[in-house]
């Protein structure tokens, strides 16, 4: 397969690796982008995740929590421009969408869009979205939603950056006082800032750990040729543990006190409220994550407009 300059650029944007390294990786993997990313990771030339700089879609996330803290919802609604995302009409619509999500029984976004619109049951959610597109004059999309019901505790929410990131945290505890709520809010802020993937290690799929071990082993073998296998194994275990601490919420360094992990912080809160407190689950939406917006050269765009 012919390796184009555009493919090399895309791989570089995704991994942060050098241009020549990206070209070699694509040549070695016959242009397969995913395999090329892994090739670069094995050589120690790329991070595990794509760069967040590729996130480009506009819009906002919004959350709502019932008065008793037992039910909560989160949504992401996208727009074409940041200008519209700040528009009060758009924000009011998003607020209505998240309130609809609080009462939904839909399991996926297609079913949600097919529901009757709560504020006007003569039309569906999708039809109301179309109406709002006509009013606002810009394409919009209800991308995703999630509803959380707390059985043995409460839910706390947090919105960062005016809606750029939304978080819901489900807390298990028998106490729902101001101290417990403040702790939940602090944990929600942690999730917004550090973006863990799991609450604790028991949630991590075995295949994920096995796959990461293979990547780390390839890295270690490339970096430490000639070292005994038992030494390399210890290096792999050390690196794997470090990586798992970064993706597991309770093992992360607590952002408000670097001397504590999140779990140790929760332990101090448990002593203060006189009851166990634990994080059962969380949801973190970041506006536009995983969506790539089409970008054009500004000079070409102006020329195109003038031509029209």
UniProtKB/TrEMBL annotation:
Q: Does the keyword Transcription apply?
A: no
Tell me which domain of life the UniProt entry assigns to the organism this sequence originates from: Bacteria
Query: What are the entry keywords?
Result: Cytoplasm, Elongation factor, Protein biosynthesis
Which Pfam families is this protein grouped with? EF_TS
Tell me the compartments it is located in.
Cytoplasm
Q: Spell out the GO cellular component terms annotated for this protein, sorted alphabetically and separated by semicolons.
A: cytoplasm
Which residue windows are coiled coil? none
Q: Name one GO molecular function term.
A: translation elongation factor activity
Which residue intervals define the domain Translation elongation factor EFTs/EF1B dimerisation in the entry?
A: 72-289
Give positions of region: Involved in Mg(2+) ion dislocation from EF-Tu.
81-84
- PROSITE patterns named among the record's database cross-references: EF_TS_1, EF_TS_2
Classification via NCBIfam families:
tsf
The family assignment reads: Belongs to the EF-Ts family.
* Function statement: Associates with the EF-Tu.GDP complex and induces the exchange of GDP to GTP. It remains bound to the aminoacyl-tRNA.EF-Tu.GTP complex up to the GTP hydrolysis stage on the ribosome.
**What PANTHER family is this protein classified in?**
ELONGATION FACTOR TS, ELONGATION FACTOR TS, MITOCHONDRIAL
Name of the protein in its database record: Elongation factor Ts
What taxonomic classification does the UniProt entry list for its organism?
Bacteria, Bacillati, Bacillota, Clostridia, Lachnospirales
> Which gene holds the coding sequence for this protein?
tsf
